[in-house]
Amino acid sequence: xxxxxxxxxxxxxxxxxxxxxxxxxxxxxxxxxxxxxxxxxxxxxxxxxxxxxxxxxxxxxxxxxxxxxxxxxxxxxxxxxxxxxxxxxxxxxxxxxxxxxxxxxxxxxxxxxxxxxxxxxxxxxxxxxxxxxxxxxxxxxxxxxxxxxxxxxxxxxxxxxxxxxxxxxxxxxxxxxxxxxxxxxxxxxxxxxxxxxxxxxxxxxxxxxxxxxxxxxxx
Length: 219
Ligand SMILES: Cc1cc2nc3c(=O)[nH]c(=O)nc-3n(C[C@H](O)[C@H](O)[C@H](O)COP(=O)(O)O)c2cc1C
What we know:
A six-stranded antiparallel beta barrel has the order 1-2-3-6-5-4. The protein is built from six helices and eight strands. 30% of the residues lie in helices and 34% in strands. It is globular and about 55 Å long. It is of the alpha+beta class. The model has no long low-confidence stretch (mean pLDDT 94). Helix 5 (136-144) packs across helix 6 (154-167). The chain has helices spanning 11-20, 32-46, 89-96, 124-133, 136-144, 154-167; strands spanning 53-59, 65-76, 79-85, 99-106, 111-121, 179-193, 201-208, 211-217. Flavin mononucleotide is lined by residues 50, 53, 66, 68-71, 82-85, 88-90, 147-148.
């Protein structure tokens, strides 16, 4: 296969939207959570698919990084919460090394947020409460999938789902003991806004004691 050159694909469109962008007082902020909440609310209005999808980066015990998308299920000043299988590859990384990072990118807004810190599992009560809100199909799926482990065919999974549907018929599906949430407690949050000519706006917050320091960064 030859080399694929990706150059200036729809750059004109991006450039035009970037010229219209302003930073709307982003640099007046003294703490990151309210700014994140505002950007997230705008993303929910403007992104057509999964505004809550964020890339989660973890590091294995031997120092190998790994990144994948997860859905952000909640955030407040305590941190950013996502859910997964506790026996997955990412869970193994996080239990060996709690340092992790999340990255959100909202294309329509031309905005990126990078969040870095340590993760800790959410309480069983918090995971139970969220699991109870999930669609029944997703609840069954959480039991059916031995996430990140090999499987011979889709049929194996479908048979397992059918068995579990019979098992839990007429009953509430409980949370699998191996399924839960993690909260990333940020030490650093950086907001990035697409501006013309690659002269983007960047604002980084770093935790210091109970407060935050702020720094504008070069693009
Ligand atoms: C948009 C999107 C959202 C996803 N959300 C989740 C999620 O919330 N939790 C999850 O465990 N996997 C989610 N996945 C699947 C993961 O990216 C990944 O394939 C899976 O968790 C296994 O990762 P691991 O083997 O590194 O543990 C999502 C994938 C996409 C593309």
